[in-house]
Specification:
With 271 residues, this protein is an alpha/beta fold. The chain contains twelve helices and five strands.
Length: 271
Amino acid sequence: MSQKIIGGSGELAERITYEQNIKYPEQLSSLSDDLLPLRIELVTLYGRALTMKEEERTEQIAKWGEETGTKCATLGTTLDTMLNEVPHYRDFIGEVVKEEAKAKQLSLEEFYHIISLLDSTVNQVVYYFTLPFLRQYDTLEKQSRMALMELSVPVVPIAEGLAVLPLVGNIDTYRAQILMEQALQHASRLQLSYFIFDLSGVPVIDTAVAQQLFHIVQALKLIGVDTKISGIRPEIAQTIIGLGIDLSYVMTFSNLRQALKYIGFTYTKKV
């Protein structure tokens, strides 16, 4: 029975690939060459699992799930499309079990034992595939979000020792954290003396973000960077006043042009 399942692995994998490509053409068609050998491997694992002891079966399925779940998430598949394949395996292998049970005239008890073992194996496959898939998917999503957030912190060098950070859109706590990291990195790499944060494109910020922004100003001051802030909108000004944040150590300007003009004058004096 095990060998018959393994012997039909290629046929079943091809069938699943065909049906899945019809159902999910945009998601899976381009991944056929990558997914086909994984499907063959899974059918083979199902066949071998019928001959394994429980401990060995669990170990083999867990190992398979770690590798395959991670790879499928990396390929860009979705969990629902992958789990949609489960009934195909169950139906095919169940049919083989039924035919072999008839041919070998297995007792009802023997047949029930094999079917129960198959159900248990399917459940383990789903479990050990899903965990690493979700873990890898979460990791990739965080990396993607981090990359996107880094792009949303566009530090623009203006002159030697001077850069502007024009912020646009809403700033949440996560983006504020990225802002802290990027501002310090760019300030060090560019050897900045002056850094202008332009908030004219930010409609509103909440209390936590306002505090974080001014922590950034303080952090930059500790590494010798003089930070200016321009474009503070009335709503943001009200938030800052409500927090009781001390702005005596940082100069603010109504717009970026005024801030640049002031720093240009400062440069002239230094020269």
